[in-house]
Amino acid sequence: MAQVEIRRISKTFVGHTAVSDIDLVVNDGEFLVLLGPSGCGKSTLLRMIAGLELPTLGDIVIGGKVATRLQPKDRNVAMVFQNYALYPHLTIYDNIAFPLRVQRVEKSKIDQKVRWAANLVGIESLLKRKPRQTSGGERQRTALARSLVRDPQLFLLDEPLSNLDAKLRHSSREELRRFQDRVGVTSIYVTHDQVEAMGLGDRIVVMKAGKVRQVGTPKEIYGYPADTFVATFIGSPPMNLVETGPVTVGFRPELFLPRASFEPGAELMEAPLRIRRIEYLGGDRLIYGTVSSSLPETEVISRIPSSIPFDGAEGEEVAFAVLTEEVRRFDSETGLAITAPNTLVRRAGHV
Ligand code: ATP
After folding, report:
1. Ligand 1, from 33, 40, 191: best to mutate by most atoms within 8 Å of Cβ?
2. 15 in ligand 1 pocket by Cβ < 6 Å?
3. CATH number corresponding to 237-350
4. What is the DSSP string of 196-228?
5. Each residue of 13-37: pLDDT tens digit?
6. CATH for the 4-223 domain, from 3.30.420.40, 3.40.50.300, 2.40.30.160, 1.10.260.40
7. Which tens digit of pLDDT belongs to each residue from 254-283?
């Protein structure tokens, strides 16, 4: 296990800056998620930590040791990619044993390690099979076990679940999280899927165009986004944003509810919602519409759980509201959050 320090790291490919001046500390035993849209530089950052890419500027310190120029094999780091290429002609057992055989580890020790790793990821009954006789999720776990047998001090995972179907992804995510809790190895996980990031991360690093926009726990990032990019990248549907001159107000769809559903006396920001469309999602209803009155006319969404009665119809105007304390404020020009004292916002670069 190890702490990882990323010190003012930048990476420029010919004429293109993929990662720009990132400072970050990953705590010992932490599960940190790098989240951002395609091309934001998250894989490049991970590859620099793995030693597969040399930073243009800055240093990477793993377990107190400057590792910037160390070969991948000298970093004691395990990397699991989306394409975790198992050897098709080898059994699951031999696939897991492979890195130990390369290291010429003693046979009885190999056996012990393979069984330990297979047991940890729950594939001990599959050891005699070939990869093609197993499911996508089981292959994924085999790749995980294979990276485990070397006792890495750091796990690097680049979208390892992205070629699994939705259901398997969900269960594999849970498994991965439970597994990391058990093993306690510091892990850095790259994804562009915000649901995955929210479910997995102790903390999330939100990136855009090579820069860190915010670092925080899922709760902090969701509740107190540092800027309008984070506010709309996290959450589905995203946070509603309504520009009111120099200040843009933001509120989550599930907190923007019919006026009648609030306690009398509650401090509210109210807005009439002209309903354009209603979508039934089973447990929830999504209400698409526009707000106006004191606010400029803007498209917004409300997410109403089925526990709250609502009989509004398309074309009608209904009183809606959000608790004042749940309204977030952003500078309309810069997009940055305007923070009241004592809020939990953590700005980009501050850990
Ligand atoms: P994705 O989710 O699509 O994998 P990402 O956030 O992981 O995206 P990176 O793969 O880190 O993004 O790429 C960041 C930027 O750097 C992209 O614009 C990409 O085109 C560029 N890039 C990555 N590798 C190279 C390279 N070897 N040479 C030139 N440009 C590169």
Report:
1. 40
2. no
3. 2.40.50.140
4. HHHHH-SEEEEEETTEEEEEE-HHHHHHS-SBH
5. 988 999 999 999 999 999 999 999 9
6. 3.40.50.300
7. 999 999 999 999 999 999 999 999 999 888
